[in-house]
Amino acid sequence: MPTAAERYAAAVDAVLAQRTRLRGSEPPADLYEDLGAGHVLLRADPHRLTPNQQAIADLIEPEDVVVDVGGGAGRYSLPLALICREVINVDPSEAMGAAFLSNASAAGIDNVRSIASNWESVPAPSGTVALVNHVTYLTRDIVPFIRKLEEASRRRVIITVHSPPPPYRQHRLFELVHGEEEVRVPGHEALMGVLWEAGILPDLQMLGGVPMGAASPSRSEAIDVALNGFRAEQWAFWRYEPALRSRIEQVLRTNFDELFVADEDGFRPSWLDYGRDVLITWRPEVDRQDPV
Questions:
Q1: Is residue 218 scored above 70 in pLDDT?
Q2: Cβ atoms of 203 and 282 closer than 8 Å
C-alpha cells in the first residue's frame, strides 16, 4: 500500500500533468510580474484583520520570529509584525517580495525582511514560528517541506489551507472550458494523513467561511473579472494563450445566465466553491508520537 506521502505526491503529479497538458509548461519568468500595482494579490493592510487572520494572530507571542513561507505580499504576516519581534518572508517571486516590503513601509513596519527564494532552496531561517498559508496544495515532496518548517520553528508550526482548496475552486467552470473533469489538488484531509504518518499530532480548527467577492455592476465587467480569476485555477497564474482566453470568454458569454447570479448589486459567479479555512498547528517538540 502506498504511504500517505506517496499518495500526496501522486495527487500533485496528476494535477501538474493535467495542467501541463492543457496549459503548457510553467513559464520560467516571475508569474506575478505582470500584475498591476493595485492587484489584490499585491495588497495587504496590516491594520485590518479578518476573523480567520485573528485566529492566527492569537497563536503569536511578542518575542516570536515568524518565518512566513510563500508569504507573498504579506497579507497574513504583516499584521503579525505589529505584535511580534520579527517577520521573515520567504517567497520566490521578486514582485511579491517588492510588494511585501512596500506594504510594510507604507504601514510604518520595519521589523521585517524578505528572502527571494523558494523554500526548498534556501537554508531554513532561524525562527520560533513557521507560517504557511495556501502553499501546500502543489508541494509534491511534502515530508521534507514539513521537516524544514520544523527546523525553522522552535515553538510552533501554523498551516492554513482552504476546503475546498482554492486551486480547485472553479472546477465547474473548468469542466465547461476544457471538456473534462478537473483533477483535485490535495487538501487538509491528505495533509493530515501525511502529518499523522510522520508522527505529528496537530490541532485542526475549522475557521469561518470566506465571503463571496464583490458583485460586478455589468455583464461585461463580470466576464472580465471571471477571466482574470480563472487564471488562478490549478495555480496557473501565467498569461493566457489567445485561443484559451477566447474559449473561456465564449463559455462565459454563452452560459452567462446559468453561471452568474444577479442581485441588486450586480452579477456574482455561481460556480465558485467558497467553503471554509482550515487551521492546522502543532508544537514540534511536544505534539508527537512514534511515526506510523
A1: yes
A2: yes
